[in-house]
Each structure stands twice: as C-alpha cells, then as structure tokens.
DNA sequence: TCTATCTGTGTATACCATACTCAATAACTG
DNA sequence: CAGTTATTGAGTATGGTATACACAGATAGA
C-alpha cells in the first residue's frame, strides 16, 4: 500500500514531482478551509499546481485520497506508552489527543470508516493501545476491542460536538435537520414521549448558547463517556487480575 | 419537519400521489439491493414511477432523503421499557436490535450523522433509554450520554463487521485498503511495532475465514464491547445509589 | 546515442444534483 | 355550476463531478 511509503528504485522516465504525502497534505489543508465536500480532484490539483488527471498517477481514486487524508490527520498524536502513568492515563491521553485532532480537522468525522484499520497512523494507535493493555493481562483481541471502543466513542462524540457547534454558529449553513432540533420541543407529544419532552424542556436537545462555557460542556461530555468506558475496562482488568475471567 | 408527518389540510391542486414515507421506503429498498452509492434521485424516481425532478416536491435535497431513509430503517425496533428486565437488559436488547438493523441495512453505517438526533425513530430510542435509566437515578443528560455511548458503539461495531464481511466475501468489490489488510503482516516492521506484528501473526487483523463461526465471532465482539460499557454504567449507577456521586 | 518507460497534459464521456418553466389538475369561491 | 388559484408532476437545461484514454516530453540505463 502506497501510504506505507515503499522506497522506489531508480527507474527511467521523469521523477515524480510530488509525493503521496504532499497530496494528502494538500487535501487536508483544503478540507480544513472549505470542508470535505470542497475536496475535489480539480481543487486539490489546483492547489499543488497540477492538472486534475495527474493526481491519478499518485492515487487510484478520490476515495483513496480521502483515506490518505484521514491517515495524514491522525499522524503523530504525541502519545507514548512509556510516558503514560498506567493504562488508564494512557487511554485518556489517547482519547484527548484524538478529540483534539477532530476539533482541528472537523471534516474527519465525515470520512467513512474503511474496513479494518490498516493505515500507518491507525496502526500506530493500535501498537500504543496494545502496549498499554496487554501487560494488564488482556488478550490482544480484547485490547483491540477496548481500543475500538475508545476511538469509536471519541469519533462519535466529536461528530456530535461539531454538528452542535455548527448549528450554534450564526451564519453557518445549518441543515434542515439541525434547524429542527430547536423546535423538537414542539414536535414531541408530551403524552407519547414524556421523558424526551422533559429533556427538550430542559434544553438538553437544543444547541447550547454559544457562550464561553460551551467548550467546557463538551469536555465534560467527553469525560463522562470516557469515564464510563474506562470504568468498565477497569472492572474487566480487575477480574482478570483476580482470575475471575 | 416533514418526517414527523404533519397532516396536510385540504388544498387546491392535485393530491400528491406519494408520501415522504413512500420515498424513504423506495430509497431503503434501493440501498438494500445496490448500496447507498446507487441511491440517486433518478433511480429512486424510477422506482416510484416518477421523474427525477418530481422528488423535489417531497424532499428539499438528496441529503434530506438520505436522512429520511436512515430514520425509516430505524423505526419500530421492537423494544419496550416495560418488557425489559431492568436497565441493563433493556440496553442490551436495544443494542442487539440496532445491530440487527445494521445487518439488514448495511448501507446505514455510511449515512453521515446529522447533528443532534431529531428524527422520530431516534427520538423513540431516546425515550426508551430515558425510561430505563432515569429511574436508576441518572440525570437526563447522563442518560443521554449513556445512550450515545451504546448507539455509537453499535454503529461503529456494525461498520467494522460490514467491512470485514465484505472483504471476506469473494467477488465483492473490495477497496484497495481492505485488500491491504491481509498484507498488513508484511507491511508492519516487527522491530518498530512488535505488538501489532504479533497481532497480525495471530490473524487478528485479517478478515476471518468465511466459515460458519464468523457470525459467532462478530456477536462475541459486540458482546465484549457492550459488556465493558454496561459494566462502566453499572459502576456509575452503584455509586449514584450509594451517594458517592 | 538509442530505447524503453514513466510523468503530467489535453480531451472527452457519462453521470449527477438541481434550477426553471409549464400544462394539467382539483379544491375553494361565488 | 363557473371561475379562480394553488399545487402537482413533467420537460428541459446547466454546471460540476470522477475518471477513461491517448500523447508529448523527459529521463535512466543499454
């Protein structure tokens, strides 16, 4: 796979003027500025000073380019198992590092998950997680399951945060569906769905006011879910240590 | 919002020959047969015996149609809080019902998450979850957090299962990336990533052989993640009951 | 120097979402 | 019952999209 950067032996013909990484970086920059839907072969080509069709010398399809962009944005998370104070601290660092990346690159939550993780940055996360969890007695398969749990939660949480942020940002194009969330209290029949109606009344289903506390709330939500997951993992590790499972 | 089916008062002009639900159902059927990328306005129109442009009398955009399809596929999960034996059993039933739906409609994991859940089927899930968890002492916001955890996990797990299944199915169009997973063992340098290399050697990163045990493995993985989450929630509920939090 | 091979370009195609216009339709008004 | 008017579904058109294909120039090895 190209993303793993096998070194090319000397060949006849002109040397490529780009690398796959250049292409991925250009795509990331474009998506950062204008969103994922703005990433077209033509615009990426323009950004690197190429014609659209030349990109196909580097990637087999646009989908492949998108996957490379996702890998690019997940590189070098700055976590290391040696520096972590135990598995729990390590997983928390990972979760926050991932969440930060999603915040920096909001489009990344729109990139479809393409099968079992095989891109370098994802594999690096796997190695990290295995280093944290296998010494605690987890089987590799179990450790990967925990990792999937954490990474998946951060992703879905980040997606929610992004959409809420977008809906609460005046001037942003809000879909007809996010627009409806503020009216959800009117749509839900309290007789049929009393608890949702109450939650809507409490404002839990509307975008929060864009005050300074919004970021804190998002962080709280991340922590809440993460704490539940890690509590569950802790229970499992305890049981494994005491031979109950 | 149209999906909530406000009844139309008598109006001049021809009566609409379709309903939004018809359109959503047609889209679902199409996606079931040919995948989400096959869902185009033209093909859906063809299926209901309309011209492409007529669909815009019912939906504002293709994205809106896709959201309606997602709502359609999540309707009537067949769970009820009254029938559940406690919150944990109730959440397990929900998770399995959702997983079954994703299995029946694999394209659903490709539907982008559009903000805070506001579609009827999603709101029904919310009501269900609140009924299960609020009596245990959780705040509505906490209960929604737990629900997001469960639903998000089932979704990401289902995505993985679908991609693995697709990769293991001979004849299916497998992306260059899923194709690479079988070669991951060759790509990873054991000196740099010893634990991933070992996991690859154990076959944990390759699609499983398409034997009869595959379905069981998938179910095991679902159970594993779900058990961790619910263990974590259980710890939280215990603490709440004993006033620790 | 010759040759095989690779790069980036130019051109062309098929598909797609969707804007705009219009004739036919059917409820409401008198 | 006749006229008015809003609405439906069809027809036509447009701009953007990914990508197939063929070619001219460039370059490393013989």
What's the CATH class label of the largest domain in chain A?
Mainly Alpha
Shape of chain A: flat
Helix content of chain A: 55-70%
Spans where pLDDT lies below 50 across 5 or more residues of chain A = 173-181
Instruction: Give me the secondary-structure category of chain A.
Output: mainly alpha
- The assembly state of the depicted protein chains is homodimer
CATH architecture of the largest domain in chain A: Orthogonal Bundle
According to CATH, what is the topology of the largest domain in chain A? Tetracycline Repressor, domain 2
The number of distinct helices of chain A, counting runs of at least 4 residues, comes to: 10
Write up what this structure looks like.
The structure is a homodimer of 245-residue chains. In chain A, helix 1 crosses helix 2. Chain A is 58% helix and 0% strand. The radius of gyration of chain A is 22 Å and the shape is flat. Mean pLDDT of chain A is 90; it is low at 173-181. Chain A has helices spanning 20-34, 41-48, 62-73, 86-104, 120-133, 140-168, 176-181, 184-187, 194-201, 214-241. The longest helix of chain A has 29 residues, at 140-168. The interface between A and B is large, with 74 and 74 residues. Chain A binds a DNA duplex (30 and 30 nucleotides) through loops.
State the gist of this model.
Two copies of one chain form a homodimer. The first copy, chain A, has 245 residues and is mainly alpha-helical.
């Amino acid at each position: 796979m190209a993303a793993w950067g096998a070194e090319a032996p000397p060949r006849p013909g002109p040397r490529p003027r780009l690398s796959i990484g250049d292409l991925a970086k250009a795509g990331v920059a474009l998506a950062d500025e204008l969103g994922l839907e703005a990433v077209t072969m033509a615009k990426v080509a323009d950004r690197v000073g190429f014609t659209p069709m030349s990109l196909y010398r580097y990637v087999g399809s646009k989908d492949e380019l998108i996957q490379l962009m996702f890998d690019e944005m997940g590189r070098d998370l700055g976590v290391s198992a040696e520096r972590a104070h135990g598995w729990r601290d390590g997983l928390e660092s990972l979760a926050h590092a991932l969440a930060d990346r999603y915040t920096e690159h909001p489009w990344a939550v729109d990139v479809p998950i393409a099968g079992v993780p095989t891109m370098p940055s994802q594999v690096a996360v796997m190695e990290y997680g295995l280093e944290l969890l296998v010494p605690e007695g987890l089987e590799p398969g179990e450790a990967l399951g925990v990792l999937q749990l954490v990474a998946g939660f951060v992703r879905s949480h980040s997606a929610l945060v992004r959409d809420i942020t977008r809906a609460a940002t005046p001037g942003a194009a809000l879909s007809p569906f996010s627009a409806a969330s503020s009216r959800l209290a009117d749509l839900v029949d309290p007789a049929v769905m009393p608890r949702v109606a109450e939650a809507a009344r409490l404002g839990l289903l509307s975008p929060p006011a864009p005050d300074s506390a919004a970021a804190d709330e998002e962080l709280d939500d991340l922590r809440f879910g993460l704490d539940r997951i890690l509590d569950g993992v802790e229970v499992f590790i305890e049981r494994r240590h005491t031979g109950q499972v």
